[in-house]
């Protein structure tokens, strides 16, 4: 398994949000987790990435057999985990290029790989930005500062493409996108599909799944996966709502 | 040779937040003979001066930048004792001085540096200050501006452990149309303290004065502290005076975001603190000087974020 989560319990400020979540994702597959607001979808993403304040009270999570929960957040990234944020953070004074190059080389260093030269890095990041419709000039600007919602999400995709993770958790990547931006972002996700990679989409709506076709859909309600099915489950959810499925 | 006959006290407003104990210890050091220098800079000249006493040393300098002359002074203040520096700067009409002050004294040292500058009409005085050393590192600037003169101060104050680093400025807009901008960025780790006391005085008749102060402090530990005290005294009615001050911590969301991309905590803190100093460092027009000041600041930051 790429990502194996077993009986995961997570509390935030003493309140239990994930209540025994179990999920196993194989390499080469694309999954979507859908669920109503407050089901704990974003909590799952933050917990996997290791955010402070998300306390694992029981259960396990492994990435390629490695205990994910024992690693610091930056070590999880180097191990191949990528979390695409619903609200990408603005970092004044740090250029996208410096940020991404530092990140890439930090990951490579932890994996015992050689640093990427400045020239090779620029070539790589410019090519990815072009593919994803992000003006390469924006790469010189501070991370996400003054970016529109769509530009921020494109920028997330550029980061993902450059860092080339094997396990991608994308939290509401489709939120706040117009149809053109959604198409480009979907292309970015689809470009990452590969036999040795796994994608987990966390989403509220069916819309993204028209562009990124998942192999499996998991319905999350109140901190647990209550149902798993193929992509037709999304349509069923759309028709009948979460209440009917969870019942 | 004796040093100042009486030491300042807590009631002395300009020393209110200072480390007076460090000053007392320094006062007990054996004193060398005072050094007095007089320098006149030529057009296009870059002069470098360095002082690093291990005992108690008073060193005065009278600096002349004649009318129309454009020059640079780079001053390195260091050592392990007490350096009591007093500099008088005179800028003639239209003269330009770029003045880099790098204070990098040892952990036990005390540096008290006082600058008194008088700018003639249309003179420009640019100060780039890196105040990062000493148990107490204190820089005081008293600047008086004639018609159309401009004073720009960019200061970086960095403190670690029990250090106190401070900047006390008094800018007098004596005549109309003068401008001043002071930008101070402080980063503090451990139990360090940074103080910025900035006074702007606009004299009667000094219309069209444009004076600005911006002070931001970043605390890397809850045990560190920053004091900012802006003070405006305005005796003219057609003036622009602005000041802003903030004290904050590193953005936890930004740190997490960086971690999700693989950047380790020390590196992330280094990047964020470096960005925080950008307002001051990026404003240094001369590339070689910018790199010199930046290298000092960034090297010091690495120590701060590592130990935070």
Determine and state the CATH class of chain A.
Alpha Beta
The value of Rg of chain B in angstroms is: 19 Å
Strand order of the largest sheet of chain A: 6-9-10-3-11-12
The assigned structural class of chain A equals alpha/beta
Shape annotation of chain A = globular
Mean pLDDT of chain B: 95
Distance between the termini of chain A: 29 Å
Main sheet properties of chain A? 6 strands, mixed
Whole-number radius of gyration of chain A?
Answer: 18 Å
- CATH superfamily caption of chain A: P-loop containing nucleotide triphosphate hydrolases
User: How many β strands of chain A by DSSP?
Assistant: 12
Order of helices and strands of chain B: HEEEEEEEEEEEEEEEEHHHH
Strand content of chain B: over 45%
Q: The biggest beta sheet of chain B, please?
A: 8 strands, parallel
SS-derived structural category of chain B: alpha/beta
Distinct helical segment count of chain A:
7
Write a structural description.
The complex is a heterodimer of chains A (247) and B (308). Chain A is α/β, with parallel strands linked by helices and 247 residues long. Chain A has one domain (3-246): Rossmann fold (3-Layer(aba) Sandwich). In chain A, 35% of the residues lie in helices and 29% in strands. Chain A has helices at residues 41-49, 73-78, 96-110, 118-131, 149-163, 179-191, 232-246; strands spanning 3-12, 15-25, 30-34, 54-63, 66-67, 81-84, 91-95, 142-143, 167-171, 198-203, 216-221, 224-229. In chain A, the strands form 3 sheets. In chain A, strands 6-9-10-3-11-12 form a 6-stranded mixed β-sheet, sandwiched between helices. Chain A has a 4-stranded antiparallel β-sheet with strand order 2-1-4-5. In chain A, strands 7-8 form a two-stranded antiparallel ribbon. Chain A is globular. Chain A starts with a strand and ends with a helix. Chain B is an alpha/beta fold. Chain B has one domain (13-249). Chain B starts with 19 loop residues before the first helix and ends with a helix. In chain B, the strands form 2 sheets. Chain B has an 8-stranded parallel β-sheet, with helices on one face. Classes of the chains: A alpha/beta (247), B alpha/beta (308). Chains A and B meet through α2, β7 and α3 of A and α2 and α3 of B.
């Amino acid at each position: 398994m790429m990502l194996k989560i077993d009986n995961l319990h997570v509390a935030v400020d003493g309140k239990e949000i994930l209540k025994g979540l179990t999920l196993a994702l194989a390499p080469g597959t694309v999954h979507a987790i859908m669920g109503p607001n407050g089901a704990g979808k974003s909590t799952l993403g933050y917990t996997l990435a290791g955010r402070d304040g998300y306390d694992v009270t029981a259960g396990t999570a492994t990435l390629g057999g490695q205990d994910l929960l024992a690693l610091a957040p930056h070590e999880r990234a180097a191990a191949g985990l990528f979390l695409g944020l619903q609200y990408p953070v603005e970092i004044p004074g740090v250029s996208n290029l410096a940020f991404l190059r530092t990140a890439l080389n930090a990951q490579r260093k932890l994996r015992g790989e050689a640093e990427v030269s400045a020239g090779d890095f620029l070539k790589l990041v410019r090519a990815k930005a072009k593919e994803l419709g992000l003006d390469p000039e924006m790469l010189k600007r501070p991370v996400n500062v003054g970016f529109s919602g769509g530009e921020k999400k494109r920028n997330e995709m550029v980061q993902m493409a450059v860092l080339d993770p094997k396990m991608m958790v994308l939290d509401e990547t489709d939120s706040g996108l117009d149809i053109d931006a959604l198409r480009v972002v979907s292309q970015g996700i689809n470009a990452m599909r590969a036999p040795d990679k796994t994608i987990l989409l966390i989403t509220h709506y069916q819309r993204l799944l028209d562009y990124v076709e998942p192999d499996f859909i998991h319905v999350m309600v109140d901190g647990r996966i209550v149902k798993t099915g193929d992509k037709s489950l999304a349509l069923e959810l759309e028709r009948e709502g979460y209440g009917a499925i969870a019942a | 040779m004796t040093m100042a006959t009486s030491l300042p006290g807590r009631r002395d407003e300009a020393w209110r937040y200072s480390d007076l104990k460090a000053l007392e210890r320094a006062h007990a050091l054996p004193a060398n003979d005072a050094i007095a220098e007089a320098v006149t800079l030529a057009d296009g000249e870059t002069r470098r001066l360095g002082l690093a006493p291990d005992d108690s040393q008073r060193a005065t300098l009278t600096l002349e930048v004649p009318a129309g002359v454009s020059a640079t002074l780079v001053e390195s203040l260091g050592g392990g004792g007490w350096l009591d520096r007093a500099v008088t700067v005179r800028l003639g009409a239209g003269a330009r001085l770029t003045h880099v002050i790098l204070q990098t004294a040892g952990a036990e040292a005390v540096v008290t540096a006082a600058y008194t500058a008088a700018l003639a009409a249309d003179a420009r005085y640019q100060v780039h200050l890196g105040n990062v050393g000493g148990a107490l590192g204190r820089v005081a600037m008293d600047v008086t501006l004639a018609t159309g003169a401009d004073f720009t101060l960019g200061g970086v104050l960095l403190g670690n452990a029990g250090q106190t680093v401070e900047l006390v400025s008094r800018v007098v807009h004596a005549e109309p149309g003068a401008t001043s901008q002071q930008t101070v960025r402080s980063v503090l780790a451990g139990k360090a303290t940074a103080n910025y006391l900035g006074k702007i005085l606009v004299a009667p008749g000094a219309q069209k004065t444009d004076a600005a102060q911006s002070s931001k402090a970043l605390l890397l530990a809850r045990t560190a502290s920053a004091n900012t005290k802006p003070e405006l005294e305005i005796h003219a009615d057609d003036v622009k005076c602005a000041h802003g001050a903030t004290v904050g911590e590193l953005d936890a969301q930004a740190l997490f975001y960086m971690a999700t991309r693989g950047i380790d905590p020390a590196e992330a803190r280094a990047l964020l603190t470096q960005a925080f100093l950008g307002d001051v460092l990026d404003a240094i027009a001369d590339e070689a000087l910018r790199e010199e000041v930046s290298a000092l600041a960034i090297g010091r930051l690495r120590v701060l974020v590592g130990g935070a």
